[in-house]
């Protein structure tokens, strides 16, 4: 159980911590220092690396979470915080799927073709969805930790 929790927490750390850094630190710094084409190229390169880690984190999060529920004896024996966590976690994964398939892949193509206007629109979409997912991630961690203590 301890190893599963460690894998679970490391996955959360990579995913939510990465979103925090991207949204709160890198985004304003990039706006301050780079022109739009350079900024779009930077985000394309950042996402192409970060999103590989997010896929790994999601798989590890799901496997460790579902296995912990199995060890608890199924959802009927899991606390209410686990039910809420599962629902919020699935919502976060769906939003991430949208970021990746409906926005990032287009951003990647537009940057390669130097269509800066369209690429900028996709980056704006990703920014909103990542902001929402970051808020959901922080909420999910709060539900998990406070729920465990109750
Ligand atoms: C998507 C499917 C998920 C499943 C099935 C799942 C399941 C679980 C389970 C069974 C536990 C152990 C609870 C306990 O011992 O009382 C746990 C702990 C935890 N989960 Fe999740 N979880 C999921 C997603 C998430 C997400 C998306 C986050 C955060 C963004 C998260 C954050 C945490 C945290 C912080 C803990 C507490 C670990 C500790 O302090 O021991 N989980 N999760």
Q: What is this structure's SSE topology?
A:
Elements: H1 2-33, H2 36-72, H3 80-112, H4 116-149
Helix pairs in contact: 1-2, 1-4, 2-3, 2-4, 3-4
The structure holds protoporphyrin IX containing FE.
Shape: elongated
Counting helices, strands and paired strands, the structural category is: mainly alpha
Q: In sequence order, what are the helices and strands, one letter per element?
A: HHHH
Distance between the termini: 20 Å
Proportion of beta-strand residues: under 5%
Helical residues, percent:
over 70%
Number of helices: 4
Number of domains: 1
Mean pLDDT across all amino acids: 97
State Rg.
Answer: 17 Å
Task: Spell out which ligands are present.
Answer: protoporphyrin IX containing FE
Count of extended strands: 0
Q: Could you name the ranges where pLDDT drops below 50 across 5 or more consecutive residues?
A: none
Largest sheet, strands/sense/barrel:
none
């Amino acid at each position: 159980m301890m190893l599963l929790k460690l894998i679970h927490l490391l996955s959360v750390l990579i995913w939510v911590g990465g979103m925090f850094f991207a949204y709160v630190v890198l985004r304003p710094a990039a706006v301050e220092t780079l022109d739009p084409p350079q900024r779009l190229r930077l985000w394309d390169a950042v996402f192409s690396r970060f999103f590989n880690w997010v896929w790994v984190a999601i798989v590890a999060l799901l496997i460790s979470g579902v296995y912990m529920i199995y060890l608890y004896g199924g959802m009927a024996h899991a606390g209410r915080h686990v039910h809420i966590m599962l629902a919020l976690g699935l919502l976060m994964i769906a939003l991430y799927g949208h970021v990746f398939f409906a926005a990032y892949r287009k951003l990647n193509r537009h940057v390669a073709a130097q269509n800066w206007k369209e690429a900028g629109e996709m980056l704006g979409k990703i920014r909103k969805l990542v902001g929402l997912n970051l808020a959901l991630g922080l909420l999910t961690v709060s539900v998990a930790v406070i729920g465990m203590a109750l």
